[in-house]
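Subgroup meeting minutes
Present: P.N., E.W., G.H.
Scribe: E.W.

1. P.N. recapped why we're keeping a running log of single-chain structure predictions: easier to compare across weeks, and new members can see raw inputs and outputs side by side.
2. G.H. added today's entry (482 aa).
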Amino acid sequence: MEYYIFFCSIQVVISPPKNTIACTEAVFKRLWLIENQEESNPATISQQELGLFLTENMSEIDFEELAEIELQKDEAEHAIMEKRKTSFTPAACEDTELSINHPYYDVARHGIVQLAGDDNSGRRVITFSCCRMPPSHQLNHSRLLEYLRYTLDQYVENDYTLVYFHYGLNSRNKPSLNWLQSAYKEFDRKYKKNLKALYVVHPTNFIKILWNIFKPLISHKFGKKITYLNYLSDLREHLKYDQLNIPEDVIRHDQNLRDKQKGRPPPSAKVPPPRPPLPTQQFGVSLQYLKDKNKGQLIPPVMKQTVSYLKNKGLRVEGLFRRSASIQTIKEVHKLYNQGKPVNFDDYGDIHIPAVILKTFLRELPQPLLTFESYDQILGITGVESSLRVTRCKQVIQGLPEHNYVVLKYLICFLHMVSQESIYNKMTGSNLACVFGLNLIWPPKGASSLSALNPLNHFTELLIDFYSKIFSSRTVPGEILP
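Output recorded in log:
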């Protein structure tokens, strides 16, 4: 009955040429087969077959209306699952750090696009949440596109990952298909090249249809970057799930899907208490723990070894710290360090491996090197008069615990060396700050918001560019430099 209504709806909303009804009926049959193939014969029809059919036989059908109908069907199913009316209320996501003077305040305030930490390879993660999109008459989709580009411009020089939460896209807030086509064309090669993964969470038939409509426009290479995930738990394999700041509506929908698929799932097993760290552990432990286990050395062994190797062999490597490395190799090196075994980076033949290991070490510290206590002070750097910002940076740094100060001074000294070779490696202080800013400081709970990104990176850039001035007045007994 559901698909009979769907079929009739297409005939009503479309003014058909003479052969449109036949084409529509064929689409109806194929969509019905796709929808039900899990309960019948999985080989009945493939997405490739549907794509070929749409391309060759469906040119006269109004795809905009087809998408509209499919979204309405999704809404009806969601409403039944959640046992509530289909009234639309976008998920609230108030960014308390967002200034009303933000150039895209009208769009950014909804929290549709957010920064969400890093994936398992150390790449920045950006999320797009459809459930936070208000109705179309309340959101300028051209501005949304500009804001998305504005956000990505801060990352396209480095590898990055996108997570698209599809739940919440409906007939009232969806952009037009022409807008989607324009959006794909708008983002040229520089945006697509360094996008290493696009995760589509909770895909529906609408996504399947959309993919086949746009498939002729999408390169094979880009298509391989797309991964469809049916449940939120699938993200844990690829990302740091706890950093994602997933909308409550999406979490609730995910639970509804699980309940529908298998009935009420059994209670999840209790998470065992964390094990005490190994005596030789180097990642995920405090600076004090590392000092105690390494005969009082102030500079952690991982940092000392990676910085020494990169100083000798990587200062003039173009794109140093921008590129990712083999996940498997990073895991292997990570394990060797934690087991107290020797690591020889020459064995791997990839200068980006020690670079990624250094970033990973910083990111896995229980507390950021710049400390949680400094977070709000650092956020306020852009509110300080330009001529006084270096002095303000110096004041913040002087207030750090002694051990944090020594390690930070060692690291920033090295990053200053890297920036001095920017004519070769293209890594200016600004570029290095984009890479290291969020590895040096993050909030006590969750990930930093997009609005926090500018002050955090600017503070880091000042540290690198004015290293001598900021760190010259304080010397700690036992400190060393690269």
